[in-house]
Amino acid sequence: MALQCGIVGLPNVGKSTLFNSLSNARAQAANFPFCTIEPNIGTITVPDERLTKLAELVKPQRIVPTTIEIVDIAGLVKGASKGEGLGNQFLGNIRGTDAIIHVLRCFDDDNVVHVDGSVDPLRDKEIIDTELQLKDLETIEKKLQKVNKAAKTGDKEARKTEDVLSIYKSHLSSGKPARTAPVEENDQEHIADLYLLTSKPVLYLCNVDEKSVKNGNRHVEAVKEAIRDENAELLMISAAIEADIAELETYEDKQLFLEDLGLDQPGVNKLIVSAYRLLNLITYFTAGVQEVRAWTITRGTTAPGAAGVIHTDFEKGFIRAEVIHYEDYIAYGSESACKDAGKLNVEGKTYVVQDGDVMHFRFNV
Q1: In the chain, what are the domains?
Q2: Does 29 have pLDDT greater than 60?
Q3: What residues does the OBG-type G domain cover (predicted)?
Q4: Greater confidence, 88 or 206?
């Protein structure tokens, strides 16, 4: 599953600095507005100690972790929904992502220019929220115009779509995101083809200074209060610290650096955990002498669906899955030992895969 998160925010809030430190790609970060023109795409390897421990037992020829794509999207200004600045390009880039990481500047530093002259994360948030909502409102109204004609002829499906679209229109017009609209889950299919920008899950990333990375500051508290009813996540991270960590070459040096700051893990690890939680994702593993590999699926996926992530033929010809729970694999030390101890379960098409399952699929095409 190719998971893609878009980093958005006003110019000079720390997006590109964060992107550079999180990904294997390098963007040209500079201390002035609009330093990013084209979206840069980088890849984060998802850190997972379970993968490492499995590899230590199996000793495979290679280890393949799962990854997340991070897209650094061009800075936004007021009027983007009407094409101002890089507006149309910016909004189009967001539409293709699975989730939005909304970076808010929550640090004071006179040496870093703010596009609006002062630090105010709530104002910054409102600018981007408004532009996304206006674009969604425009999208909803265009579809309503088409649906209205069919609804007037008595088409029941068109009438239902019209009702659902009207709810979204009213909700967006009141300054609220589509993801919080009072619409039943089954009725959301009526707007699925619109890929509404504000329907995407959002992680608010408060970019703080070093001394605030553990306990936050007044800016972070203001953001927490503002998003209380938004069904969104919030994470504090210091882009400056992450940039310093990225420059260190060895794992040991990075750990010592974190210990000196009183931190237990890099911000990128917390970011990935938050992204997975936001998108309701879990990981299962395949383990053999050729490779030990992590696979990402949506929570609630059945065994055939999980097999299909590897190859569509696996899902089409699914016969059964041989499953060992991760804890049992580590406790007994090998697949054969788990089998001897009765810890290898044979599961059918209805089995719901659990986070950490070690799986082997039987199929016939």
Answers
A1: 3-46+66-119+200-278 (3.40.50.300), 129-198 (1.10.150.300), 300-363 (3.10.20.30)
A2: no
A3: 3-257
A4: 206
Q: What's the chain look like in SS3?
A: CCEEEEEECCCCCCHHHHHHHHCCCCCCCCCCCCCCCCCEEEEEECCCHHHHHHHHHHCCCEEECCEEEEEECCCCCCCHHHCCCCHHHHHHHHHCCCEEEEEEECCCCCCCCCCCCCCCHHHHHHHHHHHHHHHHHHHHHHHHHHHHHHHHCCCHHHHHHHHHHHHHHHHHHCCCCHHHCCCCHHHHHHHHHHCCHHHCCEEEEEECCHHHCCCCCHHHHHHHHHCCCCCCEEEEECHHHHHHHHHCCCHHHHHHHHHHHCCCCCHHHHHHHHHHHHHCEEEEEEECCCEEEEEEEECCCEHHHHHHHHCHHHHHCEEEEEEECHHHHHHHCCHHHHHHCCCCEEECCCCECCCCCEEEEEECC
Mean pLDDT over residues 111-120, rounded?
72
Establish whether 125 is an annotated binding residue.
no
Q: Is 92 annotated as a binding residue?
A: no
212 annotated binding-site participant = no
The answer to the question of whether 93 is labelled as a binding residue is no
Q: Is 154 within any annotated ligand binding site?
A: no
**Taking the model in full, what pTM does it have?**
0.80
